[in-house]
Description:
Elements: H1 2-13, E1 18-27, E2 39-40, E3 42-55, E4 61-66, E5 71-76, H2 88-100, E6 108-114, H3 124-139, H4 146-161, H5 168-175, E7 180-185, E8 191-195, E9 201-211, H6 214-234, H7 248-252, H8 260-284, H9 288-304, H10 311-321, E10 326-332, E11 337-345, H11 349-364, E12 369-373, E13 380-381
Parallel strand pairs: 4-6
Antiparallel strand pairs: 1-3, 1-13, 2-7, 3-6, 4-5, 7-8, 9-11, 9-12, 10-11
Helix pairs in contact: 2-3, 2-4, 3-4, 3-5, 4-5, 6-8, 8-9, 10-11
Amino acid sequence: MIKNIKEKYQELFGKNNSTYRAPGRINLLGEHTDYNDGFVLPASIDKEILFAIGKNNTESTCNIYAYDLSESYTFDINNMAPVEMGWPNYIMGVVAEVYKKNKIIQGFDMVFGGNIPLGAGLSSSAALESGTATALNDIFLLNFDKVDLIKMAQMAEHNYAGVKCGIMDQFASIMGKEKSVFKLDCRNLEYEYFPLKLNDYQIILCDTLVKHSLASSEYNTRRKECESGVKIIKENNPEIINLRDVSLELINNYKGVMPDVIYNRCSYIVEENNRVLEATKALQENNIKHMGELMYKTHEGLSLKYEVSCNELDFLVEQSEKLDYVAGSRMMGGGFGGCTINLVKRENIEAFKRIVLDNYKKEFNIVAKIYEIEITNGAEKL
Length: 382
């Protein structure tokens, strides 16, 4: 793929270029906890976006080409605004954040493309933002540290893509480490790596190939619902800043006090934070069975309490639960479509694929896609 990206750059721009990669991510546990100052357990993966980029000796003209879409876009650094076209916003958003930091860059040319399935919940947008930030930091000698790049990539999504995402996706794309997951504290950005020793198991993603239109609007709605819950709790507990500070005992006291929907949203987040901490112990003890049990509990919470699943995701998880060689399964990502993440015994992977694909096709008349995943390093120059 990188050969194609470099060749396209030469064809379009005919100059020397530097090449970079930025990976997508999985998240073992900790879904929707990041924007609640909670804990997450992500890793970067071997689905990635590749970049060829170089200065073009103009003051402010930037030419970008999306290889997989065969689409191009040109913008002026001094006159940027979000556009309906969509994908240029992730790049322009990063450039805008650079300027907010009082750093100066000049015009550049870029070609990018990759193999992160769009709409699968693997954070292709974060990879695009993180790769752009990493590349601009390098070629223009901006001297930002990695945490700066992560925050800028996140703000690009807030301000130019209009999605008030947490920080996990960008953090995972930049800070990932081969054969490891990491627990990230989304309040203070402290993180700790844990070796992912799956032994007889493999991470398998099942892509529903559906993306229900609720996804973006409901994401922002869930955030507001959580904030509403915190406001109610703070009335008698002023020390509470976010759901991260709420214990299971405290949230249970609000059952029947706050509206049912708000209680369900908040109690899921509190329970999920506890599951992430429990999962790190399971990883240290190499207890894949318990890890899988926690994944099933997370899916139940996402489906019934947080209500971000859908029939297709629920069906795939139900199929996995019937198979004794699957340790755990859950929906992954923002919800309303995308992928399930599954821990499947290596010797049974082909049987798993056959059963899941056949049953899903019969139920929805859709041929799902299945990906075997390896854990890689974060964004880097090639």
